[in-house]
Every structure is written in structure tokens, then in C-alpha cells.
């Protein structure tokens, strides 16, 4: 019985799996999966910490006073002092 070797450049029939190549490909996929899982966890942690930092370190009590004159005052909510006087 003659096999058809036309479909493969390696002289094997197309129905034969290349076990060595499949194991290598599986190893590459496992390595990529491990790396991407760790990267995903790291990105989520960085996003969470950035949001927490912005929420807890931002002063929402800063006041900007504009009474119609050419001066605009910015009062710091933590210290209660005028920090900036801007000219229009």
C-alpha cells in the first residue's frame, strides 16, 4: 500500500501528528499563559492602588474664590490657608 507523501514537505502523511512539535508548542503556550496571568494580576493591582491613592490623597475641600475682580484665590482645604492668588 502506497502512502501519499505529496502534502507534506517532511515526507510524512498529513494525518500523522508531529509529537515533538506539539509538545514544544504546548510548552510555549504554558509559558505564555503563566506570564500573562502574572501580568494580569500585576496590572489589576496597579489600577487598584492608583484608584485608592487618588481617592484618599485628593483634597476635595479646596476652594476657588472668584469675586469678579482680577484676583482669583485658591484656599487649601487641609491647611485653610490661601496658597495661590492668580491674576486674570
Summarize the helices and strands and which ones pair or pack:
Blueprint: H1 19-57, E1 63-66, E2 71-75, E3 82-87
Antiparallel strand pairs: 1-2, 2-3
Descriptive account of the structure:
This protein has one helix and three strands; from the N terminus they run αβββ. By secondary structure, it is an alpha+beta fold. The chain folds into two domains: 1-57; 59-88, no CATH class. The protein has a three-stranded antiparallel β-sheet with strand order 1-2-3, with no helix packed on it. A hairpin with a 4-residue loop joins β1 (63-66) and β2. The chain is rod-shaped, with a radius of gyration of 33 Å. The model has no long low-confidence stretch (mean pLDDT 82).
Task: Name the shape in a single word.
Answer: rod-shaped
How much β-strand is present in the residues?
15-25%
* Overall number of domains: 2
Structural class: alpha+beta
User: How would you spell out the order of helices and strands?
Assistant: HEEE
Model regions low in confidence, pLDDT < 50 over at least 5 residues: none
Descriptive terms for the model:
1 helix; 88 residues; 17% strand; single chain; alpha+beta
In short:
The chain has 88 residues and is α+β, with helices and mostly antiparallel strands.
Amino acid at each position: 500500500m502506497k502512502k501519499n507523501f505529496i502534502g507534506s514537505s517532511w515526507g510524512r502523511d498529513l494525518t500523522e501528528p508531529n509529537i515533538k512539535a506539539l509538545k514544544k508548542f504546548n510548552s510555549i503556550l504554558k509559558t505564555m499563559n503563566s506570564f500573562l496571568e502574572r501580568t494580569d494580576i500585576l496590572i489589576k493591582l496597579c489600577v487598584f492602588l492608583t484608584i485608592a491613592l487618588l481617592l484618599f490623597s485628593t483634597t476635595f475641600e479646596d476652594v476657588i474664590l472668584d469675586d469678579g475682580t482680577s484676583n482669583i484665590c485658591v484656599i487649601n482645604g487641609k491647611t485653610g490657608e490661601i496658597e495661590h492668588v492668580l491674576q486674570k
